[in-house]
Amino acid sequence: AGAETVKRAVQLDVASRFQESLVCYQEGIDLLLQVVKATTDEAKKHRYRQKISEYMTRAEDIKKHIEKEKQDGKYHKQIRIEENATGFGYEKLFHEYLTEIVSEVWVEDPYIRQVHQASRCSLYNFLRFCEMLVKGPCKVKTIHLLTSYDEGSGRSQQMSVLEEIKQSLSNYGVTLNIDFSSSIHDREIRFNNGWMIKIGRGLDYFKKPQGRFSIGYCDFDLRPCHETTVDIFHTKHTKKI
């Protein structure tokens, strides 16, 4: 298993898929270290240790390369969330980019407006996202939300819920600014440290839970997802037209 994992790491490395390659190198090294512990043949141990040392060196080089790309703003990471996949709660996607200097967040999503089943509870999802920001480690002071008005009879409920979220955030020293647009289509989230996250389905990539007392109702890491793609950029690497 260790040999197959590092083989995959090398393939990804050659293909310049460095983020995925690094994960495979790290997993492969751990598996090979277990093999070394279980091997009594000293010659085999020596060969394994040599290979592990080579893989560790390459993994460190890749890690430095990724960090440099982040600092230079040339980093682009794409995450493909498969249909019914789990383990993709908001912390999983955003935590790496919510550094301590983040104090301002922009959310652009046209569908933060309804709570009934057809919308998969988009207002609740926005609330969960806000809860993640409040928990830190960032020190968010302002959240800007740009969305669209509910087109039906749910507008008053939309306004009431957003006002409640706004008041609740104020208790934690966070200001929520809400604006509406009838022409907004794109979905993106930006942090004032330069990171930008684009999710094909916006914040509503989770499937409706089977029931209020089913696993995944409270913990989004356990909630099955709809298929979607997440693209992560730095604003240094984007061009304004």
UniProtKB/TrEMBL annotation:
Superkingdom, taxonomy of origin: Eukaryota
InterPro entries: MIT_dom (IPR007330), MIT_dom_sf (IPR036181), MIT_domain_contain_protein1 (IPR052817), MITD1_C (IPR032341), MITD1_C_sf (IPR038113), MITD1_N (IPR045331)
Domain MIT per the UniProt entry, residue ranges: 1-71
Gene3D superfamilies in UniProt: MITD, C-terminal phospholipase D-like domain, Phosphotransferase system, lactose/cellobiose-type IIA subunit
SUPFAM superfamilies in the record: MIT domain
Designated name of the protein: MITD1 protein
Lineage: Eukaryota, Metazoa, Chordata, Craniata, Vertebrata
